[in-house]
Amino acid sequence: MMRIVDIIYSLPDMLVIILLSVVLSNVLQFKPDSFLAGMGSNMVSLFIVFGLLYWVGMARLIRAQILSIKENEYILAARSIGAKPGHIIRKHIIPNCLSVIIISTALQIPSAIFTESYLSFVGLGVQAPMPSLGSLANSARGGLQSYPYKLVFPALMICLIVLSLNLLGDGLRDAFDPKLKK
Question: Taking 70 as the threshold, does the pLDDT of residue 67 lie above it?
């Protein structure tokens, strides 16, 4: 499985996102009265593409964390008293991996927001009835000479959202880091 992760990780993300979003938006067809039809095929294809690509970094981190945790003394102690592997996984390994999962998720969300905004800006992301900061910036680009403030607000919001989520991820990393606790 890690070889598949390495292959996906070696591909350029933006190229794969653009190719898969174009292909999936043309392939996906929904019934007109369904919930997914209201969201639009571009938005559903972005969810699928982000789901296919953003798990690989987290998989590598979690694998490294598990390999590190299973060498600790308390795992050896649990094995020596006869604990079953399922019990060791539930009680020792998963709780110690949760911090890595939370931090990795908090730090990947800004990347996904920025990528979605970029794709919407170039016209491959979320389409017109659905709101997106990238599509707002793209529509403001046409009147840049007359109304430059229309581009400032979406760009400022993208920056503030990405910055705040990055700071949240850094704060979570500091909060969950056992080396920083006194």
Answer: yes
